[in-house]
């Protein structure tokens, strides 16, 4: 998946590329807007709001439409579950996202590369599938042979992970244990409009 461009950040109205110098910070309006249009927000339809929120969430996790929609529909069709919490849990449980949340990579794009190249293990076994879903009790760590690489050697010198409540970190071993599946929703995302988009 290609890196998220600042143009995309401006289109969805939020800095989701993770860059400190994202173009959205200086130009917080959609690309192509004229100076006279910057101060005026266009009236968006209900569908437009749903589409924007859906795109923002999909792009943030770096997923293609087919893969993203499969997660949403799975959550919608899960009987007896909180649909919004299920969406969050399915997306956050992806191995590439866990690597990103652990602090081993500063972007999900880089985290995906680390997984693809076989640098990450789950319960001692190398896993190279970014979409792999972690489970409660799983131990995620950097593969022993990869720790001597320039990237991880430099990272280890000043590695101080700040992880979400559902992960437990061992900074010295560069190891992380899934204490529980993620459930607390990201307050900056409107999951309800995403559900409504796919429930039409």
Give an overview of the whole structure.
This protein folds into 2 domains: 6-82 and 189-198, Ribosomal Protein S4 Delta 41, Chain A, domain 1; 94-178, RNA-binding S4 domain (Structural Genomics Hypothetical 15.5 Kd Protein In mrcA-pckA Intergenic Region, Chain A), CATH 3.10.290.10. Helix content is 40%, strand content 8%. It contains 9 helices and 5 strands, in the order H-H-H-H-H-H-H-E-E-E-H-E-E-H. It has helices at 6-12, 23-26, 46-60, 65-76, 83-92, 95-102, 108-116, 150-157, 191-198, and strands at residues 120-122, 125-126, 139-142, 167-170, 175-178. Strands 2-1-3-5-4 form a 5-stranded antiparallel beta sheet, covered by helices on one side. Helix 4 (65-76) crosses helix 5. The longest helix has 15 residues, at 46-60. The two termini are 28 Å apart.
Summarize this structure briefly.
With 200 residues, this protein is of the alpha+beta class.
Name the features.
alpha+beta; Ribosomal Protein S4 Delta 41, Chain A, domain 1; globular; single chain; 200 residues; five-stranded antiparallel β-sheet; Structural Genomics Hypothetical 15.5 Kd Protein In mrcA-pckA Intergenic Region, Chain A
Binned, the helix content reads: 40-55%
Q: What do we call the CATH homologous superfamily of the largest domain?
A: Ribosomal protein S4/S9, N-terminal domain
Q: Which series of helices and strands comes N to C? A: HHHHHHHEEEHEEH
Number of domains: 2
Number of helices: 9
Write down the CATH topology of the largest domain: Ribosomal Protein S4 Delta 41, Chain A, domain 1
Structural class estimated from helices and strands = alpha+beta
Mean pLDDT over the full residue set: 87
Q: In percent, how much strand structure appears in the residues?
A: 5-15%
Net shape: globular
């Amino acid at each position: 998946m290609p890196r998220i461009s600042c143009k995309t950040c401006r289109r969805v109205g939020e800095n989701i590329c993770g860059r400190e110098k994202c173009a959205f910070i200086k130009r917080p309006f959609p690309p192509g807007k004229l100076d006279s249009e910057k101060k005026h927000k266009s009236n968006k339809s209900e569908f437009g709001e749903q589409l924007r929120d859906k795109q923002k969430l999909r792009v943030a996790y770096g997923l293609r439409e087919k893969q993203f929609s499969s997660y949403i529909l799975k959550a919608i069709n899960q009987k007896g579950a909180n649909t919004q919490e299920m969406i969050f849990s399915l997306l956050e449980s992806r191995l590439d996202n866990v690597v990103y949340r652990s602090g081993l990579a500063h972007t999900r794009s880089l985290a995906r590369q680390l997984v693809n190249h076989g640098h990450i293990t789950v319960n001692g076994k190398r896993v190279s599938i970014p979409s792999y879903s972690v489970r409660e009790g799983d131990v995620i760590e950097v593969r022993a042979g990869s720790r001597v690489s320039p990237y991880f050697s430099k990272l280890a010198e000043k590695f101080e992970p700040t992880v979400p409540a559902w992960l437990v970190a061992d900074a010295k071993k560069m190891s992380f244990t899934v204490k529980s599946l993620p459930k607390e929703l990201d307050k900056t995302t409107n999951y309800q409009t995403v559900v409504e988009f796919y429930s039409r």
